[in-house]
Amino acid sequence: MEQVTKQEILLADTEYLFPAVFHYYQEPLVIARAKDQWVWDIDGRQYLDFFAGIVTISVGHCNETVNRKLHQQIDQLQHTSTVYVNEPMVRLAKKIASITPGGRLTRTMLTNSGTEANETAIVAARCYTGSNEIVALRHSYHGRSNLAMAVTGVSAWKTAGAPQPGVVFAHNAYCYRCPFGLTYPDCGIRCARDVEDVIRTTTPGRIAGFLAEPIQGVGGYITPPKEYFGIVAGIVRKYGGLFISDEVQTGWGRTGEKWFGIEQWGVVPDIITSAKGMANGSPIGLTVTTTEVAKAVPSPTISTFGGNPLTSTAALAVIDFIEEHNLRRNCEDVGSHFRQGLEALQQKHSLIGEVRGLGLMQALELVKDRKTKEPAAAEAAALMETTRRNGVLIGKGGLYGNVIRMSPPMNIVRSDVDEFITRLDRSFSEAQHG
Ligand code: PMP
Predict the structure, then answer these.
(1) What is the pLDDT of residues 309-350, one digit of tens each?
(2) Would the CB of 217 count as within 6 Å of ligand 1?
(3) Is the residue at 1 inside a domain?
(4) How far apart (Å, rounded) are the C-alpha atoms in residues 408 and 427?
(5) What is the CATH classification number for the domain harbouring 99?
(6) How many angstroms does the Cα of residue 133 sit away from the middle of ligand 1?
(7) What total number of domains does the chain contain?
(8) pTM to 2 decimals?
């Protein structure tokens, strides 16, 4: 194959892609290869990957077990579309039915992305309830299609997203910056009650559903208090709606012990959507719901790539790998070690206003001043550059661009965390001192 230089790749990127396609870093990082928790750029520099391609490399880059199964499958059957049946698709659906909470989410629709998974969920909720109204949360992210942008609560990601009829927004449970100026636990979980206010004031009083991420990912890993989703679920059902849990980032054990993030709040949703880490980088979308809700979606529907034998094989292999290696426990154990390391950094670096998250999904909200909580966006951008120089990959997010997001592969070990913390510590010192 013809050798291409980094400059040629970056030039082609600027000339031939939509300029809207956003990359991290002043000079975009050209990744050439990856293995397990490590990534190499085109210049041969090595990075410890604590972002996992936006929370997607769940069991390590080019995982040997997953890839062996993929290689076998690609030589046997690569594509069918949903007008035919294939074994990996139904095996995956059966497996999912056995691990979803509550024992009643047994009907799966497979698609190609988180965006499509959420579209499918909203359509199903609207068909089932006969209502159009979706309650979403401020600071949410649900995808890049027209409808998914309409239910997204961060303006930067709404592009052409003119407000759509049938979508209303409640305040989120952002304790660090409480929208009501209250403090947990004396607040009485005021934000949860806002869902009822919004339904009663901005909808006809019946809703199709409530759509939320258990932890708001792009929003900056905003983690609601333990009472929040239980109260909200009661309100949503009182007004005839379905509870839709967007587990595109929080699914598959990342939050520790539980398969799905919403289980940390003890809520059994009516629909779960997922994507990303489900297939370790193969494009997939999942919408799983009850038989009654699934039956309400009128026939026919098809998906050309949905239930693809390759991506279904990848997803099955990932779920099996998580089970066989007890990775849900690993997320809990290594996650709490990680959390301690981050809290120690908070003691040391005044830029860190809050440490939050669950399991191996942890964030740092950076502030210029811990009292005023003024968002430190430029400092977060500078930290991205210094971490890159120190050989670690992290993510950035939040409405104000001041939240550092970390979500490494779920099979990392404590020594990876220690290495990461050392490099992050050094990066903070460098970013703060010029
Ligand atoms: N939901 C959540 C919570 C997400 O984080 C994302 C992607 N960042 C999506 C949906 C959309 O997924 P995709 O990019 O696969 O369409």
Answers:
(1) 999 999 999 999 999 999 999 999 999 999 999 999 999 999
(2) yes
(3) no
(4) 18
(5) 3.40.640.10
(6) 21
(7) 2
(8) 0.98
